[in-house]
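[User] At your convenience, examine this fold.
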Amino acid sequence: MPKYESAVRRAPRGKEPSPEPLTTHAELLGGAVARAGFDYYLMARFPRGDSVGFADNQIACNWPRELVEHYSSSDVFHCSRLVSALKYTNMPVFCEGGGFASAAANHESRALTGWFMDRGLRTTFAFSLHDAALRHYIFAFSGKRAKLSDRESMELVYGAMQILHAFARDLDDGDGPAEQLSKREIECLRWSAAGKSSEEIAIILDLSSHTVASYLKSAMRKLDSVNRMQAVARAFRYRLI
C-alpha cells in the first residue's frame, strides 16, 4: 500500500544548483526534475467539479506516451491517492507506490499501479500551488529516488513557483481591458460592487451623481460591458477591484 508522509527530512546543507538558461515551461520542468534526481514530471490543473479528467487538466508531462494514453482513459485522476491527499494539505507529500491509482483495493487499481511501477514511476513527490488569479495546480515529480531532504524539497517547490509564475503570466498576457481605467472609474466600480447606488457613491466620493454616472458609463465602455453588473464582474476578473 502506498505510504504518505511529510515530504522532507533533515540533511546537511548542500550546494545550491545553478539555474539553466531554459525558456519553455517543459524545459524548465525538465531542468527541475533532473536537478532533483527524478525522471518524470507532471504539471496539471487541480481537478474540479466540471473538469475531472486527466487529459482535460494535463498541462505539461514527460511520461511515456503509452502511459499517458492509458491513464487518460482510466478516469481516476480526480480520485487518485495523490490528488485526494493534496485536497487536505498545503504541504508536499511523498508517495511510495501507486499514487496515481485510486484508493480502492481492487484489481483495476493494482493493475494501474503496475503500469506506473513498470515504467519507472515508483516514487512521487507532489504538491499543489495557486497562481495570482487563484487558479489551482498540481506538480508531481516521479522516479526511483528516495525521499528528498528539506533543502531539496524547498528548492523544488520554489522552482515550481517560478515556473508557475511564468506560465500564469503568459496565460494572462493580454487578458485585461483594452483601455486603462482611471482611479475614479475604479473607485466607482468598487463602490458599485459593494451595492451602493450612484447617489450613494456621489456622497461617499464627494461628487455629483451626474459625474458618477459618467465615470461608470466610461468604465462600462472600457470593459466592453452592457451594464454595471457586467462591468463589476469583469473588473473582478481583471483584478481591478
